[in-house]
Amino acid sequence: MTATFDLERASLEREIKARDLILGHPLVVVASSTSTNDDAKQAARDGAPSGSAFIADMQSSGRGRLGRTWHSPAGQNLYASFVLRTSMPAATAPIVTLAAGLAVADAIEPLVPDRTVTVKWPNDVHIDDRKVSGILTEAQLSDARASWIVIGIGINVRATSFPADIADRATSLALAGCSMLDRGSLFLALATALSTRTEMLRTEGPRPIIAALAARDALLGRAITVDGAPATAVGISEHGALRIRRADATETTVWAGEVRLVPS
What we know:
Blueprint: H1 9-18, E1 27-33, H2 36-45, E2 53-59, E3 78-85, H3 93-108, E4 117-120, E5 124-127, E6 130-142, E7 145-155, H4 183-204, H5 207-214, E8 223-226, E9 229-236, E10 242-246, E11 251-254, E12 259-261
Parallel strand pairs: 1-2
Antiparallel strand pairs: 2-3, 3-7, 4-5, 5-6, 6-7, 8-9, 8-12, 9-10, 10-11
Helix pairs in contact: 3-4, 3-5
């Protein structure tokens, strides 16, 4: 770490507490981790309080959805995970991922005002149809309820190049023209937005989350493939599933799978 390292734990935690946020403290910041989600899950099992947060400058085994690797070089991006203790029904837990996507959009949209920021079901955030962030939520379920949920978020901040397999569909705040590339400030914005969105879900239920997604839905009305099969996205269901119209005009909902936009 150098003098310009922008993830200083004590100052970040002071600001989180000053803002009276429900997520973001106690805060752990490390130079390297296998995965901040692994750190957060172990802490949750060990009794860490709700709101606990974990940041790493780099991850050696960062994970995304469907077992993918999350590109996690040092000094480039924000890798953070939060522990949320809750008694919400397990059926509601998937909407936490969507709420987190909205929170990321809330945090980065002011930084790229000339760009289009959208949420791609179920766990990505896009700038102009390129992925800038991914979310991985993992939960411990008990008696049909989630006793804790770990919300892992990666945001590409300073990166200007990506591995060949994702280079054609990835972007970063830097590539989108953002001049504010301080990861500490971005973490504070993220923790603020995530606190707001998860509290909204807790107190008001899924409806306002689903309604907010409608305005930022990256897929709505567009040609997509679901596990390789062509379809058209027609919105998000009240339970957080993707609604699609298949090529034979039948409509159904999708809870999991590989969803890709068809290039226009």
